[in-house]
Amino acid sequence: MRDPRYDILFEPVRLGPLTAKNRFYQVPHCNGGGYRDPSAVAEMRRVKSEGGWGVIFTEQVEIHHTSEITPFIELRLWEEKDMPSFVKMADAIHEHGALAGVELAYPGVNGPNLYSREVPMAPMNMPILTFTSDPVQARAMDRQDIRNLRDWHRQSFRRAKRAGFDILCLYGAHGFGVIQHFLSPRINQRNDEYGGSLKNRARLLAELVSDARDVAGDTCAIAVRLSLDEMAGPDGFTNAELRELVAMHSELPDIWDFAHGTWEACSGTSRFKEEAAQEDLIRGLKQLTPRPVVGVGRFTSADQMVRQVKQGLLDFIGAARPSIADPFLPKKIDAGRSEDIRECIGCNICVTGDMTMGLSRCTQNSSFMEEWRKGWHPERMRKTAPEKKVLVVGSGPAGLSAAHRLGLRGYEVALAEARREVGGRVTLESALPGLSAWARVRDYRMGQIGKMTNVEVYRESQLSPEDVLAFGAQHVCVATGSLWRRDAVARFHLKPVPMAEGVRVLTPDDIMAGVTIAGHVLIYDDDHYYMGGVMAEALLRMGCTVTLATPSVKVSEWATNTLEQGFIQKRLLESGVDIRVSRALMSAARGEAVIGCTYTGREERVACDAVMMVTARVPVDGLLHDLRHLEAAWADHGIESVKAIGDAEAPSSAIAWSTYAGHRYAEELDEPERGDELPFRREIAEILT
Length: 689
Ligand code: ADP
Ligand code: SF4
Fold this sequence. Notes:
CATH architecture of the largest domain: Alpha-Beta Barrel
Structural class: alpha/beta
Number of strands: 29
Shape: globular
Bound molecules: adenosine-5'-diphosphate, iron/sulfur cluster
Strand order of the largest sheet: 3-4-6-10-11-12-13-14
Number of domains: 3
Number of helices: 22
Strand content: 15-25%
Oligomer: single chain
CATH class of the largest domain: Alpha Beta
Helix content: 25-40%
Largest sheet: 8 strands, parallel, barrel
């Protein structure tokens, strides 16, 4: 039963002509699927509807082909042909009583038009502002262009309404929508009635909302999604100006949806931002308008949500990542099952799916974007298990995920862990600076396993091949993890680097095992995700002086995809780390290392007391190979299969690969071989004749 403290979260809220059944509002979020995978995005949203969300939104929807953000994959509502996928999504969202919202965007200066090849348009003539600094400039819109822009919007309102959407949202946040570009005194330096004063800069917004109302009548609600602060200093659209705008147009939309100014600032990782980090920017906005207010803050705690509502900060609890990590979050709170919530860890692996044009995945919820492709579900398994016993060796994210999901299927599961502590790398890494939220990967799964009578956990149980044979399981899942390499082999060097006798070489495993060091340490980072920067922070805390060398042109380069790179480099620079980019480790001797420029080969010496390798990893697969050598004896011991998963099969710097591998193992165990058939469903474009 629901805890009465949380009743307030389940109150219906009126928005314009409609009523949302509760305060859980899934704000728009990318997923890397978009127009390429329409059924996958519809099914992902259907599952959220099943999970109890009151409002569920699409991702960004491009309304017209004259403004698009190729290579990124969002949705497109350019012509009638696009309608079926929108109808399918609205129907899926409605299935369990949620309101369907659509986020309509004209990217303007954020759209390089690499696909449509149209000349982009913006408030003024200026270079396109994208992650990739495309060699494209936008032309300034004239009055006819603005009239066209309004027509295109009207057309998109009509289509969205016909597709069945309830909330039409105008996107002007994160620097991604033309409304924000017009509001910004930095991007909009026009001299006409659309530039200059705030009233003029807000004219386009007011006109578009009025156009939306004309189309929507009393069937749809109109939302406006704006940046809390453009994050461009006093030259930009500031939080103070936003407050003026809301006061000036307090009754303009039916809902105010506030996001942060840049995507990086809005979707900060847990390493850099706490839950509810935008509170100061939101406080007081609600008091300027009679309309309901939505805001985000990576909310996973029901108490925090209640506080936001009770203190008059928000009417709706906006959530993107918490809804990805646990699509059933509202239902679990409603059912008094808060302890079952799979809390977002704030890693932004989901964002990387969009940034890399792959399909998004979630560290915590491995079924995310596999709902349609593979029929996976965040709470259920597709098939029940035959009466068999599975031995999972290793309790890292891969082993824990496999054990939990195998347990859900109904297998009899034994999970053996060599150490006293379960959790493998997530337990070890969660003790490092900024990574405490990683422990949620372990805690959620251990919480679930703890309730299952068919899953047994054996701690301090280092298993030998003989132990495994004698165990009496039909299936053996080897999830024994990996170790960081010590020889500098990764991407730049594929062969070990010469090391003189007596050089002190460390890896992140040593630091996580409690090794301490003093003096000057050279970190060699050819991994490029979070660990290099995290090791620098750990060494600084020990009092070391740190030089970080990397063959990349920036620190933690892949963390651009998690929106963290800028924060990492800033933190290291401000902490006094000596950063050497475009440099590879060439050799090391006692007291010094030689690093070389990756362009010219020019070498330089760095005096140091130790070298820390953040490079590749080696699978811990001795047990796997020993078991394979003993294959002739498997049948006598009743063993049908032995399979390595996660880092023991092929290490990844990201935990999400391991949780996914565990889930997949459990879904596919005892399934017939698929031969050449793809292991997932796929949609392909229609061929026009
Ligand atoms: P992954 O990311 O693939 O889950 P981890 O490195 O996080 O990998 O976890 C691997 C776990 O396996 C570690 O906790 C380690 O102690 C455990 N382990 C390794 N070898 C054995 C073994 N022979 N018996 C039991 N546990 C093992
Ligand atoms: Fe949260 Fe990470 Fe999942 Fe994204 S990938 S929803 S940040 S746990």
